[in-house]
Amino acid sequence: MTTFTRPELTPAWQTLGRLASQHPLSLSHLLADSARTQSLNLQAAGLQLDASRQRVDQSVLHALHQWAEQMQVMTRARDLFAGELVNVTEGRAALHVALRGSFVKNPPWGDKVSGLVELELDRFLSFAERARNGHWRGLDGQIITDVVNIGIGGSDLGPRMACQALAVRDGGAASSSLRVHFVSNPDPLALQSVLAGLQPARTGFIVQSKTFTTQETLTLAASARRWLQDAGCPVERQAPHWVAVTAKTDLARQQGFMPEQTFSFWDWVGGRYSVWSAIGLPLAMAIGSSAFKAFLQGARAMDEHFLSADAQHNLPLTMALLGAWNQHFLQAHTLNLAPYAYGLSLFPAFIQQLEMESNGKRTHIDGSPVAVSTAPVVWGGLGSDGQHAYFQLLHQGTHTVPVDFIGVLQTDSSLPLAQSHQEVVLGNLLAQAQALALGRDAERTLVALQAEGMSEEEARRLCPHRTYVGNSPNSIVWMDRLSPQSLGTLIALYEHKVFCQAALWGINPYDQWGVELGKTMVRDMASGSGA
């Protein structure tokens, strides 16, 4: 394990503080430098990062890279991939990267782990294909046509987001007679709305829980069992309708789940990093085993880039450093995610968990209190919709809000006018990124208003209301198209970005004791021992 240094005590931190206070940077000036713009356009694994609209120059970038070296970010990354016990508070490795397969021979986590991963991957993908091909049958022999995934947090957000992202493609790998549904919230109306219109004899359920003790999940599963029972399927004969995915397979079997329909993952897989494991079973059912393997391949390509690329061309490290610069030195404490692709509408919610559950910490890995801010508040939604809502605050509010735009260059839609739709979408993305960066000063606003036909007096009266400060940092992540492989690459990009920021802050991104507190309090209150 590498040694630990407090981030604010590094020489680079002091340099960055001086640069931020002495040389405020203007994007209108920075964007005029074509060489700089070119140097901040990075490509890897089929993705392109345009970071030219970030408020950094070469002196800032140099200091940021020095900070990464002084915090041993890439050394910690090698510890992660080597299977070291990077999750220090729980005393275990974080080997979600092993779920994607290795891009090197003799992977450092060992043949045993690789063998277990490959075996379980084959098992759940085989079952997914059986379900897609109509070979999963219920109690009376009818084909299961609808599957309801029951899980919460990482057992819901990842597979739900990925299913929506990939199932909307016309004629793609998602084509199947099997329909996949999700329910996570224990509010009874959530389950009721999912079950409405489904036929019990043709409905299967996947119960996803790492510990198989999650209260919300077990509450929903019990209600679903009653739904089947009321439809004439006795509880003791319901096993063909049920699948379990858990790290506690013994508990699942004790509750009546059939061994051949019980799939496992391991304690070194965190919930928010689990979509690559059997937790991805509903995704595999939705898109097919070949597409699921492409999903893993995309993530593996980003893994290889992350470990092998030099710092100046490393996408996850660059995103991490720019985000930390914005947060600490530009005092921008939120991050807006604005995907301009309908399939990615749930991506901001997924990244909320990934970033805020991983890095929402106030304690260093050595137990000492953190003296600097850690994870930003992550929020957002589809960019086209946001333009007509909260983008007002981004343009003229009093907060500096960095934005990650996500653009998909090619659409898979079969609509006759799909290309014209796509031109509108991409035109809006680029316009918003540029408008946030450059704004419009009073002089240009006066000219624009008079060009609209206003008198000089009226234009001057409205000028303060129609002026935009700009200088808001933003990046664009470009994907050629939204495919299983590119989605896997995109998710892995953000996973490694989050890891890099955790290393910069000297915190553990792989525990979530704040989540556990709420679970404990619920149990205490139910037993009468709570406040």
Structural account:
The mean pLDDT is 94. Helix 5 (73-81) packs across helix 20 (484-505) and helix 13 crosses helix 20 (484-505). The protein is an alpha/beta fold and 531 residues long. The protein has helices at residues 11-22, 27-30, 34-39, 58-70, 73-81, 111-132, 157-167, 188-195, 215-230, 249-254, 281-287, 289-308, 315-329, 347-359, 383-386, 391-396, 418-438, 442-451, 456-462, 484-505, 513-527; strands spanning 41-44, 47-50, 146-150, 179-183, 203-208, 242-246, 262-264, 334-340, 377-380, 403-408, 474-479. Strand 6 (242-246), helix 10 and strand 7 form a beta-alpha-beta unit. The protein has two domains: 7-90 and 309-438 and 472-515, Glucose-6-phosphate isomerase like protein, domain 1 (Rossmann fold); 111-288, Glucose-6-phosphate isomerase like protein, domain 1 (Rossmann fold). A six-stranded mixed beta sheet has the order 1-2-11-10-8-9, sandwiched between helices. It has a five-stranded parallel beta sheet with strand order 4-3-5-6-7, with helices on both faces.
- CATH class designation of the largest domain: Alpha Beta
Q: How many strands appear in the DSSP assignment?
A: 11
Q: Largest beta sheet: what is the strand line-up?
A: 1-2-11-10-8-9
The overall average pLDDT, rounded, is 94
Q: According to CATH, what is the topology of the largest domain? A: Rossmann fold
Q: Find the structural class using helix and strand composition.
A: alpha/beta
Helix content: 40-55%
* Contiguous helical run count: 21
Alpha-carbon distance between the two ends: 40 Å
Extract low-pLDDT stretches: none
